[in-house]
Design a protein that fits this description.
Nucleotidyltransferase, domain 5, seven-stranded mixed β-sheet, globular, Methane Monooxygenase Hydroxylase, Chain G, domain 1, about 550 residues, six-stranded mixed β-sheet, 18 helices
Length: about 550
């Protein structure tokens, strides 16, 4: 029977490919990370808004970190492996070799990253069709999804288009490398490729946007075999992949997830009893998982499909089997904070002071804000400083990639105090953006009362507290900081047959660490900040309208 094989001595490997690094973890049956390793991966930026990677470099890093976490462990105790990755596009030729996605013809650069915005013209034309599949992406497709990228390749790299034999979402590339099976995950094709749970691929969509050649080969190049996340792929690890990864041949390999969805899996199903949370004794639909890293994703589930303007989905069983998923998001969060802080004239001073105190730059900034706040709550320091955070366009809920960042309230001062203030205002702007997404989801029919945060930014206490205070909702942090890796390991656990379902594995492997409550006494201040926040985008659109009238 499923579940009988799982013991405290069973281990599962989770492999996570983020934007700038690959990580692996060895996770036990209770969800504890036993070993962890990380390795950077290369990013090329040949032009502004274009980001490329190498699938060979990514796989080599996967093998390296996996070997490190399983070193010295009895292989018979390792029961399964799960992969997650960013929703980047991998292009292979008919012999499954890397194929260039760039004008320079560099075949090793065969991955268009998720955050690449080269296909602006293509996505505008796709959205102009108003095709019915767009209803499942909030009414307008994002430039970060795969159809506009495919169309860009066809129109700009005809030689690569003709040579291409396979287009894969990065999570599916990893399961193919591990098993030799080109099956796609339901998660990737639903969320990034316009596959629908009732119709599958829609011929009329691909024909209307000019990619009818994908229809003619019965979708062989983009996938005509789809598996549910956590379902076992093929016969497990091939001998070659097993050798590369340092794992036994035939080990169960799970159908993969997009990295944000793996993070959602790692946190959203945790047992909350005894923590006095509003979601206790409530269905999982009362929870929102936030995965906060380079970008942020906001994952909410529902029992029936909810169509939310400007929010992706609903996608059936894309993350939690049997439930519909809506996914909001912010294209630049961790990347935005780094951009603002490192680009400030006082950054060298911050670096030297942080190094002298043996703290990270962000720990030092948080301490510096405590020094300059005097009698005020820290958040109130930005009463005259406001940020609109869409430096890389707006993903949700406005779906406007042409929006730009804004800062209102600058002075001539350029010291460390001013750097700390703009850092705080940027974090608040990101949290205000989350509130904007939440309110849009709730207006459409979601009923969310608790946030579950994971990812790199969830390690920053200021980021977490601002999200609690600005949304007015408690924030739950996982016992394991590496919740995305736990989510990937949950997939491996399901593929092994040790758990009867993903829901069972989520409940047993997801653990609560800490709860951060909102300070309701600050509510009025943040309500006013939110009013200003919404005015900023109104003013941006007004002045753009004026300039466009030239």
């Amino acid at each position: 029977m499923p579940g009988e094989r799982q013991t405290a001595a069973s281990y599962y490997v989770g492999v996570d490919v983020g934007s700038a690094s690959v990580r692996a973890a060895l996770v036990d049956g209770g969800g504890a990370v036993v070993a962890h390793a990380e390795q950077p991966i290369a990013i090329w930026e040949p032009q502004p808004e274009r980001y490329e990677q190498s699938s060979a470099d990514i796989w080599a890093a996967c093998c390296s970190v996996t070997k490190r976490v399983v070193s010295g462990v009895d292989a018979s105790l390792i029961r399964g492996v799960g992969f997650d990755a960013t929703c980047s596009l991998v292009v292979l030729d008919k012999q499954f070799q890397p194929l260039a996605v760039n004008c320079e013809g560099q075949n090793h650069r065969n991955v268009i990253m998720w955050m690449d915005h080269r296909a602006v013209s293509q996505v505008e034309r796709i959205n102009a069709t108003r095709h019915r599949v767009l209803n499942y992406v909030g009414g307008a497709m994002s430039v970060e999804m795969q159809p506009p990228k495919l169309l860009w390749i066809k129109e700009n790299l005809p030689e690569s288009w003709e040579k291409a034999g396979c287009f894969l979402d990065l999570p599916d590339f990893l399961s193919w490398k591990a098993t030799g099976v080109t099956a796609r995950s339901l998660c990737t094709v639903l969320c990034k490729w316009t596959y629908t749970s009732d119709r599958g691929w829609d011929d009329t969509f691909w024909e209307r946007i000019g990619l009818e050649d994908l229809v003619k080969d019965k979708y062989e190049k983009i996938g005509n075999h789809v598996l549910s996340p956590g379902e076992a792929v093929g016969k497990g690890l091939t001998p070659e992949a097993a050798k590369d990864l340092g794992l036994p041949a035939g080990l169960a390999v799970a159908a993969s997830l997009i990295d944000a969805h793996a993070g959602g899996l790692g946190v959203i199903g945790a047992d909350v009893r005894g923590h006095n949370l509003p979601c206790e004794n409530q269905p999982i639909t009362s929870r929102l998982a936030m995965i906060c890293g380079t970008s942020s994703c906001h994952m909410g589930v529902s029992e029936k499909p909810i169509f939310v303007p400007g929010v992706w989905g609903p996608y059936f069983s894309a993350m939690v089997p049997g439930l519909w998923l809506n996914e909001g998001g912010q294209s630049a969060t961790g990347k935005l904070i780094d951009h603002v802080v490192r680009g400030h004239v006082a950054f060298p001073e911050l670096q030297s002071r942080a190094a002298a105190s043996a703290h990270s730059i962000y720990t030092y900034l948080n301490s510096h804000l405590d020094l300059i706040k005097k009698s005020l709550p820290v958040g109130f320091l930005t009463v005259d400083l406001h940020v609109w955070p869409d430096f890389h366009g707006n993903r949700s809920p406005l779906t406007d990639l042409t929006l730009k960042g804004m800062v209102v309230g600058l002075t001539l001062s350029q010291g460390l105090d001013e750097l700390a203030l703009i850092y705080l205002a940027t974090i608040q702007a990101i949290a205000l953006g989350t509130r904007h997404i939440l309110e849009t989801m709730e207006a459409a029919g979601h009923n969310i009362n608790t946030l579950f945060l994971c990812g790199g930014l969830s390690k920053n206490p200021l980021f977490v507290q601002m999200h609690a205070d600005i949304t007015g909702k408690p924030v739950v942090l996982s016992q394991e900081v590496e919740s995305v890796l736990v989510g990937a390991a949950i997939l491996g656990a399901c593929a092994s047959g040790d758990f009867a379902s993903i829901q069972e594995a989520m409940g047993k492997m997801g653990k609560i660490g800490r709860v951060v409550q909102p300070n309701h006494e600050h509510r009025r201040f943040y309500d006013k900040k939110y009013e200003v926040f919404l005015k900023l985008v109104e003013h941006q659109r007004e002045y753009r309208s004026i300039m466009n009238s030239l």
